[in-house]
Amino acid sequence: MVDSFFEAVYRAVSAIPKGKVATYGQIAALAGRPQAARAVGTALHANPLPGVIPCHRVVNRAGRVAPGFAFGGPGIQRALLEEEGVAFTREGSVDMSACWWDPDRDGFGGGEPSGKI
């Protein structure tokens, strides 16, 4: 059960287009377990394809980057997002009104990750 949930998380995260972000809760819902936002974080920390599955595109519901981002801290996550054109507010959060991914509006940008999950 855990493996299939993690795989669903990786598929959902892989679909987030460059320049957009999703929330942990949003990914949990897309993976079929809307109450499992914390489990999404666990899945992202176990990312089997770093650099392929774009876990840096997942932020909390207020648009804040993860304090313990797996690839070197929140500064790295912010830099990766800024390189993709994600805007930040003066307070340091992602501008969710401009950069939140709405699959119905924006489509599924990344699709399936290449490689076996």
Walk me through this protein's architecture:
- This protein has 117 residues and is mainly alpha-helical.
- It has one domain: Arc Repressor Mutant, subunit A, CATH 1.10.10.10.
- It is 40% helix and 3% strand.
- The protein is built from six helices and two strands; from the N terminus they run αβααβααα.
- It has helices spanning 2-14, 24-30, 37-45, 74-83, 96-99, 103-106; strands at 22-23, 58-59.
- The chain has a two-stranded parallel sheet.
- α2 (24-30) crosses α3.
- The chain is globular and about 40 Å long.
- The chain starts with a helix and ends in an 11-residue tail after the last helix.
Short structural description:
Helix 2 packs across helix 3. It contains six helices and two strands, in the order H-E-H-H-E-H-H-H. By secondary structure, the protein is mainly α.
Question: Helical residue percent?
Answer: 40-55%
Beta strands, count: 2
Under CATH, the topology can be stated as Arc Repressor Mutant, subunit A
Q: Please report the first level of CATH classification, the CATH class.
A: Mainly Alpha
Please identify which CATH superfamily we are dealing with. Winged helix-like DNA-binding domain superfamily/Winged helix DNA-binding domain
Shape: globular
